[in-house]
# Entry
Amino acid sequence: MLESGRAEQIISRVRAVPAGFVSTYGDLCPGAPRAAGRALAECEDPSLPWQRIVRADGSLAKGSRQRRLLIAEGVPFRGRRVEMDVARVPAEALDQLASDLEHADPARGTR
DNA sequence: CGGGTGACGAATA
DNA sequence: ATATTCGCCACCC
# Structure
């Protein structure tokens, strides 16, 4: 069950982005950022934090709706764009976090 | 095979 | 700073 399909891989990375941070289409799928956008557009899973995926320059694909959700999570903005220098999670970090999710132990680390 | 499309990215004007 | 153009690649017919 690793479902390591192209889309599945992208989706798993989206889930790896922590609240209050963002990542880019290019980081989700280097070399084919549009495939990432495609995956998000097709995926209807409401538990998917799609709003945390923004363009490389910090602009939003989904406009005000997306902006509102991100601000609610505490993502720093500069005008209409996300402050990428502060909130961006690089591709490598995403893989790291994705691995961490598999180890998700809510009871371990609580002391 | 090709041709068109897109929740993109980078370069250019 | 914004608008346009081009390049890229995955997916569909």
Notes: Strands of chain A lie at 23-24, 53-54, 77-78, 81-82. Residues 6-88 of chain A form a domain with the Arc Repressor Mutant, subunit A fold (CATH 1.10.10.10). DSSP finds six helices and four strands in chain A.
